[in-house]
Inverse folding.
């Protein structure tokens, strides 16, 4: 581990702690977690600390705990063992780490039990660590959706902080995005008829790995963009296919980027692909145009729905009055997910808290088709970073569903839709920061105009 | 998931079940496990089923359980939910999977509780799944090292089976190895002065990813080969450095390969690097020469120790009589690990069972310096696959240790050792199958002769 040596790193962490202390006056303990093992203990997945820990401690420290108390930071972790130095080389000591992150005190992990008091905490997803938390605090720690009292107060205080990113966070997201952009460009160049999805994915992820970064989430790289969370890479690319690539690097400090581009295998969109691409792009542009502090994110979602519905009516795929179609969620037939989500230390930021971060107090998920998948329903605020990712998909599980056919059969012009069979899935996704001037697209240097995409494909 | 459609897949699985039934007459339940989450539930690491499950079920099925009873196979898993089909696309049903793996019966997961009876099992490393196992069997399942009765009998029966690979397993290891070999070649070509370890690693892993495979373990790609389990990739390669790359792909069916090569950044070994490389290679060749059914693996370890000790005496680094030096573990100063380990579905095969698989009944780890790190102490048998991986390292934690200096100070010619400061770490590792004819090197098509390595580097 290379320790950062600039003062601004420490100042950022200090500021976060002090801000927390302004709204939360009790003691908090945050666990970092441990690397899950891949079948046997010596073979682990790459460790990634809990995001709440990372937010205040800044470093990806395994098996560590921090205590936050009135702006004061105490670190609990063990020094590297002689065994770990023998096998893993020299590592910074607890005191060196404490000095780097500006901890006021530092103790071995075994001391933690003497400092727990009545601390609040947030549960870790790993069951083993969660049980350590419960044992240490001598109580059953509720899941975030069930949290009450000081635990809930801590969650709310942290949400308030993490909803608006500070300069350091934005810098980290930009760094992650800049690598993701190069990665996507490599993917567009690598995609050729006859290659496999796995080969394109490898070209993309190689760039991220070459920058010594990891992916913030499992990459989607597929000619079957209609499979929204596609996790397989086995298809061979054919001329006429579109590749949907949803890939984002994570910065050194753990901040996520999240970008989707859809591009033609042979370097040229077909006329039908062009029509739908431009429609999705129009929705994307309209949404970004609307991003500004104070704007309700749900309205941006509806903005996408409106543009998509109008476009599909113009293309003759949907039939009827646009407002009626929107009212009956006809757009969700082809755009079944939300227009985006919070972006931060998690790609779906703070989703470990259920909907507590994504949904403003008092709000909850809709029961409506499509709208129920919206992950964010809050007013935007300065420093908030969200994805904007409208899409169009022909999902068999939706379009062939009997009850869907009964409800929506009449408003779809199936014959016309058949003409668009070479458009299985298109999504265009950027990372957008709400600023006092409106919107800053952090991923803007990766073009999304149709002709620019064709140029990047460079066949 | 693409289901395999050949009969030999099913026949292999059936044969494994029947062989188990020959030595284990009770009922066994094996859990596959689940993908650990990366901070929040929707962001998971890539799922890898437990190896014992995979051995008998053949497919990487998440949240599944198999019952093995007198050669009969029952599968417990849920059909894909409508939600998972909407987001993840069409997936094979339970019945399709059951037909593919030749299961006699198949039930939803919820039915499992009605079929547990007095079954034996092997605990899963994931704590959440482990607790499901205990709950389901209504007893506290001991860790393998504490297992007794039917659990221990099951473990022993499975070890007996998995120690000797069948044809299908060997074919899978060969497939994994063939991709690893291409990956290593790409790494040798990519390494140039000024590039980073991360860039070389990305060139290597890209090949594995492009074949739609994963790594069997975290790659080691470093100019600091003396850090035995180096997990960082931040150094810049300089002319004169050696790169140590320990990288292995895992086959579609989950079988591991494990290869190490050490090569010069500038394409040419220095005279001192040559001396040590040839010494490690001599140990490597001598060990492989000795692999055959009936040979004690520990003797192969000592063979490596002997060649290394002789070589270091010849180079003037160690001083004294070879037998005396071996008796005092002087070789462990520079070769502190074991000469290799079992290779199979796990890169350290069956290491989830502690030393039960690696050590023959009645044997246990030595207390001796270096020898205590030997992972395998059994007689080789036909079908057993092991790594052969001698090495030479200048580990600061060993060589600068005060008590080491006291004990070994006299037998090291420190001045002479200083001349070899450009040899921080060298390891040469191949995967070797014991056959009735002796040894088959499954990774032989990746050369390890010094001049061939220089040719592959192709500067």
């Amino acid at each position: 581990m290379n320790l950062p040596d600039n003062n601004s790193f420490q100042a950022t962490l200090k500021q976060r702690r002090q801000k927390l202390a302004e709204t939360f006056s009790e003691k908090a303990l945050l666990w970092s977690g441990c690397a899950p093992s891949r079948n046997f203990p010596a073979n682990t997945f790459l460790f990634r600390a809990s995001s709440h820990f990372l937010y205040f401690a800044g470093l990806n420290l395994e098996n560590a705990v921090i205590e936050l108390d009135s702006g004061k930071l105490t670190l609990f972790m063990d020094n590297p063992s002689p065994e770990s130095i023998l096998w893993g080389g020299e590592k910074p000591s607890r005191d060196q780490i404490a000095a780097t992150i500006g901890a006021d005190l530092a103790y071995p992990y075994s001391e933690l039990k003497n400092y727990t008091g009545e601390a609040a905490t947030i549960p870790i997803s790993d069951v083993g660590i969660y049980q350590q938390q419960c044992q240490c605090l001598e109580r059953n720690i509720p899941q975030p959706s069930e949290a009450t009292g000081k635990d809930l107060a801590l969650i709310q205080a942290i949400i308030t902080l993490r909803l608006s990113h500070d300069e350091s966070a934005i810098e980290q997201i930009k760094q992650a995005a800049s690598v993701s952009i190069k990665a996507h460009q490599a993917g567009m160049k690598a995609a050729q008829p006859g290659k496999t999805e796995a080969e394109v994915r490898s070209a993309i992820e190689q760039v991220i790995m070459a920058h010594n970064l990891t992916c913030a989430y499992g990459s989607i790289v597929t000619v079957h963009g209609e499979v929204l969370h596609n996790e397989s890479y086995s298809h061979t690319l054919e001329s006429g296919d579109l590749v949907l690539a949803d890939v984002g690097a994570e910065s050194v400090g753990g901040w996520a980027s999240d970008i989707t581009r859809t591009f033609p295998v042979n370097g040229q969109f077909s006329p039908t692909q062009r029509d739908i691409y431009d429609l999705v792009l129009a929705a994307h542009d309209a949404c970004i145009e609307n991003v500004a502090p104070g704007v309700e994110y749900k309205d941006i979602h509806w903005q996408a729905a409106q543009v998509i519905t109008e476009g599909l009516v113009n293309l003759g795929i949907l039939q009827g009055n646009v407002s009626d179609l929107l009212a009956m969620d006809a757009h969700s037939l082809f755009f079944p997910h939300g227009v985006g989500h919070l972006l931060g230390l998690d790609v779906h930021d703070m989703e470990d808290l259920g909907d507590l971060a994504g949904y403003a107090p008092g709000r909850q998920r809709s029961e409506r088709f499509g709208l129920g998948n919206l992950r964010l329903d809050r007013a935007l605020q300065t420093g908030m970073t969200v994805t904007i990712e409208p899409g169009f998909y022909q999902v068999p599980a939706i379009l062939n569903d009997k009850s869907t056919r009964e409800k929506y059969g009449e408003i779809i012009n199936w014959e016309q839709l058949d003409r668009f069979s070479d458009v299985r899935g298109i999504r265009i996704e950027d990372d957008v920061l709400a600023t006092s001037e409106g919107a800053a697209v952090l991923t803007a240097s990766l073009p999304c105009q149709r002709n620019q995409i064709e140029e990047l494909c460079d066949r």
